[in-house]
Amino acid sequence: MAETLLAIDDLRVTFGVGRLHVAAVEGVSLRLEAGESLGLVGESGSGKSTVLRAVTGLAPVAGGSIRLAGEPVRLPRGMDFYRTVQMVFQDPFASLHPRHTVDQILAEPLAIHRVADADARIVTALAEVGLGPSYRFRYPHQLSGGQRQRVAIARALVLRPRLVLLDEPTSALDASVQAEILNLLETLRRELGLSYVLVSHDLAVVAHLCERLVVMRRGRIVEETTADALRSGTVRDAYTREMLRASKGFTREPPAGSGLQPS
Amino acid sequence: ATPKDTLVQAWMIDDIISLDPAEIFEISTTEIAGNTYERLIGYDLDDVSKIFGVVAESWTVSDDGKTITFKIREGRKFASGNPITAADVEFSLQRAVLLDKSPAFIINQFGITKDNVKTAIKATGDYTLDFTMDRPYAPSFALYALTSSVASVVDKKLVMEHEANGDFGYEWLKTHYAGSGPFTIRDWRANEVAVLERNPNYSGTPAPLARVIYRHIPETATQRILLEKGDVDIARNLGPEEIAAVSTNPDIKIQSAPKGTLYYLGLNQKNPELAKPEVREALKYLVDYEAIADTIMKNQASVHQAFLPKGFLGAVNDNPYKLDVDKAKALLAKAGLPDGFTVTMDVRSAQPITGVAEAIQSTFAKAGVKLEIIPGDGKQTLTKYRARTHDIYIGVWGPDYQDPHTNAQTFASNPDNKDDASSKTLAWRNAWPTPELGKEVDAAILERDPAKRAALYEAMQREVMADGPFVIMFQQTENAAERANVKGFIMGPSFDNNLATATSKE
Amino acid sequence: MTTPLVEVEDLSVGFDLPDGRVEAVRGVSFTLGRERLGIVGESGSGKSQTGRALLGLTAKNGTVTAKRLAFDGIDLLRASERERRALRGSRMTMVMQDPRYSLNPVMTVEQQIVEAYRAHRRVSRAEARDAALAMLQSVRIDQPQRVLALYPHELSGGMGQRVMIAMMLITGPELLIADEPTSALDVTVRGDVLRILDALVAERGMGLILISHDLELVASFCDCVLVMYAGRIVEELRADALHDAKHPYTRGLIGCLPRLDRDRHPLPVLDRDPAWAL
Amino acid sequence: MSLDQSALAARPERRGAAALGLLGGIAGFLLTLAITLLGLVVVTFVIGRVVPIDPVLAVVGDRASGDVYARVRAEMGLDLPLLEQFRIYLVKAVTGDFGRSVLTTNPVIDDIRTYFPATIELATLGTLIGTVIGIPLGVFAAVRSGSFLDQVVRIVGLVGYSVPIFWLGLMALLLFYARLDWVAGPGRLDIAYDYMVTPVTGMITVDALMQGQTEVFWNAVSHLVLPACLLGYFSLAYISRMTRALLLNELGQEYVITARVKGLSETRVIWRHALRNAAVPLLTVVVLSYATLLEGSVLTETVFAWPGIGSYITNSLQNADMNAVLGGTLVVGAAFVTLNLLSDLLYRLLDPRTR
Amino acid sequence: MAAASSLRLWLTTSEPRSRAQARLGGLYQGFRRLARNPTAMVGLAVVVLLVVVAAFAPLLATHSPTAGGDLRTERLLPPGPVFWLGTDDQARDINSRIIYGSRLTLAVVVLVTVIATPIGLAIGTISGYFGGWIDRILMRITDIFLAFPRLVLALAFVAALGPGIENAIIAIAITAWPPYARLARAETLTIRNSDFIHAVRLQGGSSARILLKHVVPLCLSSVTVRVTLDMAGIILTAAGLGFLGLGAQPPTPEWGTMIAQGRRFLIDQWWVAAMPGIAIFVVSLGFNLLGDGLRDVLDPRSVR
Ligand SMILES: Nc1ncnc2c1ncn2[C@@H]1O[C@H](COP(=O)(O)OP(=O)(O)OP(=O)(O)O)[C@@H](O)[C@H]1O
Ligand SMILES: Nc1ncnc2c1ncn2[C@@H]1O[C@H](COP(=O)(O)OP(=O)(O)OP(=O)(O)O)[C@@H](O)[C@H]1O
Ligand SMILES: [Mg+2]
Ligand SMILES: [Mg+2]
Ligand code: NI
Q1: Could you report the per-residue pLDDT of C38-48, keeping only the tens digit for each?
Q2: Distance set, CA A236 to CA A226, A230, A254, C188 (Å)
Q3: Interface present between C and B (3 or more CB pairs within 8 Å)
């Protein structure tokens, strides 16, 4: 059996104090084997992004443990961590520095980690995400949304991580561009042997890219299931079922037992 | 427009810090004291040598020359209605010594100190007073000293009503009034206004005006606008160009009077270049006295090069120095500085001082003397001057009283040239030791014959003029731009005799 | 023949920008009766601008030209700003895309709805308030009394969207343009909101234009769909005929979505033909 | 000119603070006030020691004898070690005893009571003028942005930024007072009206009204108008620019379109919707501009012979009258902090999101 | 012609080939945007003119800026053929003084920018980025400076440092930074939680690196715009210090001091104060217009 790349046990994350206190994540446990991809779905605000941020150290961990390849992660995260784990954000317009060229954006991680052949690595990285060298010296505002997301992916991959955290990487993109990015992610995963944790609210997207998924609601995992189960409709949790139904398009009759049904 | 019975003057009165005659020493306060308090004696404004009694009816000098006995006029009253008696005079003079504020030295110099003041100044009856000095000073010296505002007679009864913690009513009198002059001080609001009102109990000729108001107007252009508009009757701080401009206005007339104030350069003898006699002399040839007096200082000053202003006993009125670059160059060469030298000058940022300094800067440059002007606020340059850390200081000096000793002492006497000396005369400030000259100064105050005394001072002036570290340049002329309907505003030779006592408006 | 509710013929919207001119909508034509019309297309294809042009809310730097632009027989191109304003809000209206940004953050729900009502009806404040309450009830908001006093930021996304709809429907308009009314919502809430709109069309006989980029959704909701690309309508189809679409763009759009019922790797991608934009 | 977008800058922080509630707010305010004032005390003390001015000179003048000088120096505590001096200074400042001003001989507190109201009067009217004219100007400029009117408003504003105030002040005096006679001249009141009101608040207009002296009131207003207009012009320049920028920003928001969709008139859209939203940060702008005017404008005060706090502090500083400097600075600083708090509170009132 | 248009193409291409080309292209685009704004161009022209005049002062001046002429005959002359802008009370040519004074004005502008901007940026970004007690302390300090009457603070500094134009400039700079700090802090607060900053952190970038290479450059533009818009205020504060006698040393031809000295002649010999006044007005207007234009070009919010 493959090694466990990421193991999260009973993770709890809280924000704010007093009246502002929110328990964003309450007792989430998951496991990710090397080479595997895991989906994280759930309604807005259910804590999906927070789980990813907690892993990367961007959100404060209030309890539980996070282990990477068997080692508990340290705070602050060490340089090794960043070489193992990288992240791609949801909004391609916000995740690139508006004043840096693609070249500068890709050179930054290489400079931080003092990687020697930076120039060559940048060219390779661009090629990997399907961008020609002509994109190298453009500014983000000279790129389309899909192209930006490709740059963001290239930036995540330029350090050759093993695990990539994807926070709704396509939800800001058009359907046609989404397909391109999904294909790209799939190819890269295969070629580089990556593991993904993919956050999305679109069940189809998750099912497309991941074998396994967990459904979150209000900071907790309500169901852990597989893409195949999703396709065959054999899910247990009522909420998961409702999501499944809603993602099939509009229906005139309201679903029975909908939590949002007005009285 | 201003009310008919009120005289409004636009003036910079931000120098007022106290109204107590035992403390006042500033230009505007002395003027106010002159209008509101009476002293034992006064002098004729047209002929300073004529002295007459005011509160005193007469006086006699004892044979040993040490005691002056004053007879106080009877039947006169303070503004409060209290009668003026010898006890009030005794109180006023003793108080000045005991409080020991800045002007106390004027009385101290007659050997009257805190310890002996109770015996030295003594009322010998209701209307007689003895003033006893340690040495037989020239009587005119003592009498002139007693014309200064520190010798103003205050209302003992009224003041003592407000005494607290044995302060002789000092805290109270700082902002109040207890005198007997033609006007009373009704109100003073710092940086805003001082209001004088006619004294109903005044024993002399009552003032025609009911009220005299000094408004603090810091900006001269504003003063001018107010004057032209008629919202002030007299503007006191106009510059030469402004004077020239308003003088064409038929509603405005200009009154001017020479004042005892001198403009001079103090050359610090701690500076090795300035310590050379040739350099000192050369600099005296490097000021274009006439041109400055005719332009920048037009109507504001006349050329005067001796330390006693015109009108003082023994004053020297000829002006030997003029701009002579060649001579200056020759002198500099003799001093071993053919290419000139660089020197700084501390200049107070106020007109006309800055203008004069700049003009001097350009004539100095003609002989290669590079003058760097260091501008500063008044107190700032003065602090430096008193610490003797300047090179050249451009200053203004006004006599403390009408006797020649006041200026002779400061310009020509420096008994102790050490840094921590207690007497900080101008000679000391410029680090100029005066072993011989100092003795002459001391001798002159004991000379009782006026003519001989005058001769002594003349000699001293010549000496300072030739060798002293002072480039004395001008004597101030004070100007007042008045509305044409103002009559009888008096401008005397000293600051405390700019009087509105006889002023009226048509 | 009865006049259609909306007639649009050869509508173009262009914007002047410092760098030149942008043609956002180019020669769009359609007619709408008392039915549901969907407009789909990718981001920037001109969907919203078409709707805004109808209401006369094109930004200042934009110009609108058309052979005909009519609402219930009224020629909108000739109408004065005052006449258009009278139409706006009372007879034709638009549900804005995102309630978080489209509601005035410093006014309460009550103030905003009452204002909309009183802009077109001479009624007292109290009457307007009652109407607002009724309206909130009809979009099935719980505790409408409480919601009236809330500020927009105190509403959840779904509530905000319904408040928006209530506000726009309170005057009983004959035409509603709903610009991505569900894009900000969770999939589960989405159905709720659409069902409300659907009921209104059915009950009041209102004309509805639903703008969205979700082809599947629009097809399952509307009677008729316009597909826009680069400011043009590339295809117009009946909703039930979606899967028989002819235009490669439409077909590509349908095909490139990952689907739960079909596991395709890799996904087909859209090969854009520059000719589509001509 | 020291006004700035920092008004806007403070927003995120304030929202955070708002959440702490009123009580926390007051405690926080008091703490801020205390710290700021302590900072001011320290800074003034340091200033007092570094200015190359001998404070004794201001008391004794130039002619005093050495003994008098030494005695006064000792009286002023200047011969004590620095640390000891600071301790005394601090204790006094904390107990609210600022001592006496050397220059005016009054307790500093009394001085402030006379000078600060004069400045408040001027600053208030100035800000009022700046706001009442500046906001509509800014609104028109924003609504017609890019038009001729917009350019005119901009140039008018820029002139306000660029012209030396003493120049403009004297010219205004010459024109409106000397030539046209529309307003009264420099100073706070005609001498004829002096002493007709007893100072209560120290603001002549307010006192005159309270005491029913309408004639005095109008005279005071007539004196006030010109310098206030001048200061008003400067805050107008700033306020109109900020209004324009903020309103332009609001006009680009979606909710403005929503308002138009509802069929509202353009006037209502702009004034009731957009400006109401812009008002929130605009308030901070106005308050900040007010706070700046409260510091007193030395130059305006000089030109108009206005006995305000600005020239009081400056004058005191030039005479090393540190008691007065400290008192004046603390009052101005406290006013600044208080106004900041006030704008915070108003901010919360105006913006429901921060409640 | 052809060369020019191919250069333009090279600059405006959306596919730059090298770092230099990308950077130059960015600059060119910015300039283009600026160039389209006529008032900004007027501003730029004024600023360029200021620089040119300052650089070539000795060639442009017809007289000595410091040495006075004959007090009796050449003093306070109105503008005329010899003295184009008249003479002052020391019989100096005002035109030449203004020309030489441009150097000082430029020095004021440059020095204040060089001193105040970095201080403000450093304090503001550090404060905003780290938050917590660092923020609280730094902002308290900023508030203290802000709460201090500004001219008084400047006066105090000048008094402490001694009068003179250099010290006046330093004093102005020391009092000018707090608004920039607050601006930079606000800007930092909005970007510190943005994804691209998170991304750098996820690559292991240190705080110092993030601040210096990512945050500061973004704050720089809005602060630069603010500084440009403040230039008028800064020149006038220098003038204000001159007015109070604490600015430049005579006979240095500093514009503010010139006005201050000329105000005695304001009503009759109007040119003495008016000429430098106009110079200040034109220059500050120039900076203001340029600042307004720069705002459009540099403000990150407008770059979308
Ligand atoms: N920095 C923060 N401070 C306070 N609360 C936060 C913070 N970040 C997240 N939260 C809260 O934590 C909860 C979970 O947020 P999270 O972003 O993880 O949700 P999500 O599942 O990613 O939702 P979405 O699909 O909308 O992205 C939410 O209630 C959110 O308001
Ligand atoms: N005020 C404006 N100035 C310039 N261009 C504009 C303006 N408003 C819209 N556009 C342009 O018009 C085009 C069409 O915009 P529109 O809002 O109609 O797109 P959309 O189809 O609604 O897209 P989305 O799905 O992203 O909402 C876009 O390219 C947009 O950039
Ligand atoms: Mg999320
Ligand atoms: Mg849209
Ligand atoms: Ni300012």
Answers
A1: 999 888 889 99
A2: 12, 10, 20, 17
A3: no
